[in-house]
Amino acid sequence: MRKFIFKFGWVIILLVFQNCKECPPDEPGGGEPTIGDLENIDYNPTPYDLPQLVDFPQMLIPDDNPITDQGVLLGRMLFFDPILSVDSSMSCASCHLAEQAFADGQRFSRGVEGGFTGRSSMAIMNVGFNRHGLFWDGRSATLEDQALLPVEDEIELHEDWPNVIEKFRRHPDYPTKFREAFGISSKSEITKELAAKAIAQFERTMIVGEGSKFYRAQILGEEQLSDEELNGHLMFFDASRGFLPDAQCFHCHAAPLFTDSDFRNNGLDSVANVADFPDLGRGGVTNFQWDNGKFAAPTLWNIELTAPYMHDGRFQTLEEVIEHYASGGHWSPNRDALMDSISLDAEQKADLVAFLKTLTDTSFINNPAFQDPFK
Ligand code: HEC
Ligand code: HEC
Question: What integer is the mean pLDDT of 356-361?
């Protein structure tokens, strides 16, 4: 009897799937869910081989979400699939574009119904190393938590998770993909939490640095920086012993991740009282007034590709960013003590920009593993 079920179970599964292939994903009846309907599909997850870059910290992976090839593939599909939005017109990738290191080149991003996000889209790079929380204000503790939010965000994808789950269950491929990634035994076990886990797995593989000149020259020692880049490097790391000005950057943008994982006020707005910041930033999360106007110091990897800059995209170019830091920024009661005017001549400013461009890693943006799997 067992043998019989085993043998014919396969035939039935095959028939069910054959059927599904012909049903458009949104049509009801595309693959009627039955209990245990996925059990005969192979569940044999392969541990993902995460690269370990020299000098980089070890990534902390949650015990309940190990990275597997199958999970990463599913996460990548979900990241690029407009099925996550209310009218199937937008995906995560609409605001996180590979060619812009997964930022989008806009000051504010246009969401699914034409509204604009309140802050500038963030590049998705090395997010697996994040320890202070995701977003400009760190309000999501983990990638798994973060991935749940855009779907139901009124501006962003403005869909409901229960609808999205229904679309997955009726879809010709997703039930199999969820089975292969997480070992679920029936379509009814597909949840938003599993979808978020898969997206988080994909994002953890998005490690940047290896293809940059900085990595080859300053970490591996295989190449030399140009004189301009080297001067920029010395100023960035306060390492010239007085021969060049100290630009203080590394305190908040520490190598090799180029962030210190903290929230700071780098002098973007001039306010007399900390209650008056136009965007409360970290203070809106902690409800601690002294945190108002503080934002995550973002990574500077691929910074050449992610304009415009800052949480509100106010600077169009790296030259404008350097002008801002040279001036010390605007005063407010909690402006960071490291923000002071720096006297930089035109050549020194250009050298800092030249150094920032050594952090460009085009192998990251062109990596076939991070491109749209539906193309
Ligand atoms: C409409 C545009 C839009 C869409 C769609 C969108 N995002 Fe974002 N994303 C943003 C913006 C804007 C921010 C910064 C918001 C903030 O800090 O308040 C952001 C921030 C993030 C961050 C934080 C990065 C960091 O370093 O802290 C991650 C991760 C992320 N998005 C992933 C996703 C995923 C996954 C999806 C799809 C489920 C998605 N985004 C859909 C615009 C978008
Ligand atoms: C006191 C800490 C601090 C110092 C010093 C500092 N930064 Fe920043 N940096 C930040 C913070 C915080 C942000 C994000 C601010 C925001 O958007 O509100 C930021 C943002 C940036 C951005 C824009 C990133 C993006 O993705 O939009 C660049 C570029 C940058 N810094 C470069 C530098 C350089 C170059 C130096 C040295 C001249 C420097 N920073 C010094 C804290 C600092």
Answer: 98
